Each structure stands twice: as structure tokens, then as C-alpha cells.
């Protein structure tokens, strides 16, 4: 069976010889579909409707590899998780179950998979075969953006799917993907973050990579106001993950955060900027060039190195840490 694997994962597996700035801690697999995903999401390189080469997802290249080769490499690897990203195509669920079964036969590494809404019996089947964390590609913050970017299914189908997934996988074992930069306001982002945590799921934040930036280096694309907005949303996400009532800590005015009243004692600023998602998922430079600005820090060491810069980014948004 042919699958796609992120270039960093292949480098760490020594299947491909390429420079790695930071090693991925998760092995990232993407289902293969020659003509891409049948969904029409306007922001996604995998969508059949976008004329981007199908070996891209976000700004990462995903070469096609034989599954057997990857299974063999996984037996000898040091990944803390395997993640299988799905695409909509005929028989994608049956193929997904097959991939999960083969991985589980080869290794005991925890497995995540990221899916669109699927029936509950299929969720249970995936869990039975070894998936312990489920990613849900809601991607957008509001029903209006959902319509505008032509997501498949409906907004309420996704919300109900998150509820069903939490019932099956348990609280904190469902991770909703949310892309920042698709036209949502900070209030929109805060509102959907609160909703997702209320449902018992967590959030993995992604920064939007415009399709026209995918094939060229993005070092010339540095909108720092975007970094500041992203930092605020990362802070809200971390507080909600820790169970804090954000209104006790942040003061909102209109559509912005006016000030941080106080920082929760157990949250460190370098933790706030780390890649969010399943345990062990670091997605190195998935949304940004290693030259920066770095939106999701893939390692604590890198975040520690940039600590003062990060504090200044928060300050620029009126947040004194
Ligand atoms: S958070 Fe990471 S490991 Fe989890 S489903 Fe999303 S991409 Fe996969």
C-alpha cells in the first residue's frame, strides 16, 4: 500500500537523506490519493480543487512511500507517537483501519488519527485497533468561515461529532485542529476554544499558510501583528487546557485582550508557545520557516533560546508577563 510520509519523518527514519532542523517526535503519515482529497477546503493543498502539487500539506512535503518500508523503520525508531492524517476518497476508512492494524502489529507506539466526521461504530473500530487519540479537522472558528472556505459536511455535524468522539475516546483524548488566520477575530477564536474545552476536547493550533506561499520560502512573509494575535490565542488555549477561567486572568475589550491581570503560577511562557495537540506531537516547522517567526515551537530548548523575544511579543500586545 502506498502512503505519504512527511519529509522530516522520513529523514528521522533514515529513508531519506535531508537536513532536519529539529527532529519530529511523532511519525506523520498522510493517506495517499493521486488526485488529492475529494473535499473542497479552500485553504488546503490536498484538496482536489486547489492546483497545488499533492505532495504538499501546509508547507511540508510528503513523499509517497510503501507502507512496508515505513513499518520496518518504525520498529527501530524513537518516535513517541504515530499520526495518520486522512483524506476523503473512496474507501478511505477501510484503508485507515488497515494502516492502523499494520502499525499496531509492527510497534506499540501510541497512534493518533485525524479525521472528518465518521460514524460512531467506525470510531470504536479505530479505538479497538489501537488508536488512543483522535484528531478532528474542524479547522475554522465560526460557522460563517466554515461556509466560506467550503468545508465538507456542516458546522453542527462537526460539533456533534466532537461530542460523540469524546464519549468514545474520553475527555482530553480528542484534539480539535483549529487554524488561526482564516479571518476570525480574537473573540471568535476565544469563543470556539471555550466551546471545544466545554465539550471535553482539547485544541491543536495551526497557523494558516496561504497556498501561494507553500512552494516558496516564507522568510519574506513576516506579519508580526499576526504573531502577536497568535500568541494571545496560544495563551488562552493553554489556560483552558489547564482548566483556568480565562476571564479571571485576561481582560478583554472589544475585540482584543486589554491586559493580563495575572499569569497562572503553573504556566511558563515557554510552555505557552510549544506546539499544541496530542502528547508527543511537535510538527516541526509545519506552519513556518525555521528562519522564523516561529508560531509553534517544536522543542522546549528552542523556546528557551527565544524566551526574551517571546516575552516581547506578548508585551507588544499589552500583555506583561
Ligand atoms: S495533534 Fe498532532 S498527533 Fe494529534 S491528530 Fe493532530 S497532527 Fe496528529
Description:
Residues 21-245 form the Radical SAM core domain. It holds the Pfam family Radical_SAM. GO terms for molecular function: catalytic activity; iron-sulfur cluster binding; metal ion binding. The chain is α/β, with parallel strands linked by helices. It has one domain (2-315): TIM Barrel (Alpha-Beta Barrel), CATH 3.20.20. Helix content is 35%, strand content 18%. The protein is built from eleven helices and twelve strands. The protein has helices at 7-12, 67-75, 92-106, 120-129, 143-148, 155-169, 186-198, 224-241, 269-272, 300-305, 307-315; strands at 2-5, 26-31, 56-57, 60-61, 64-66, 81-85, 111-115, 131-139, 174-180, 202-207, 250-253, 256-260. The strands form three sheets. It has an eight-stranded mixed beta sheet. A two-stranded antiparallel ribbon has the order 3-4. The protein has a two-stranded antiparallel ribbon with strand order 11-12. Helix 4 packs across helix 6 and helix 7 (186-198) runs parallel beside helix 8 (224-241). The longest helix has 18 residues, at 224-241. The radius of gyration is 19 Å and the shape is globular. The model has no long low-confidence stretch (mean pLDDT 93).
CATH class: Alpha Beta
Order of helices and strands: EHEEEEHEHEHEHHEHEHEEHHH
Per DSSP, the total helix count is: 11
Look at the structure and give the mean pLDDT: 93
CATH architecture: Alpha-Beta Barrel
Let me know the number of strands: 12
Shape: globular
Strand content: 15-25%
User: Uncertain regions: pLDDT < 50 for 5+ in a row?
Assistant: none
Strand order of the largest sheet: 5-1-2-6-7-8-9-10
Characterize the quaternary organization of these chains. single chain
Distinct ligands: iron/sulfur cluster
The assigned structural class equals: alpha/beta
Rg to the nearest angstrom?
A: 19 Å
Give the fraction of residues assigned to helices.
Answer: 25-40%
Q: What summary fits the major beta sheet? A: 8 strands, mixed
List the domain count as a whole number: 1
For the termini, the CA-CA separation is 50 Å
CATH topology: TIM Barrel
InterPro entries: Aldolase_TIM, Elp3/MiaA/NifB-like_rSAM, rSAM, rSAM_sf
GO molecular function, one term: catalytic activity
Organism: Ignisphaera aggregans
Domain Radical SAM core: 21-245
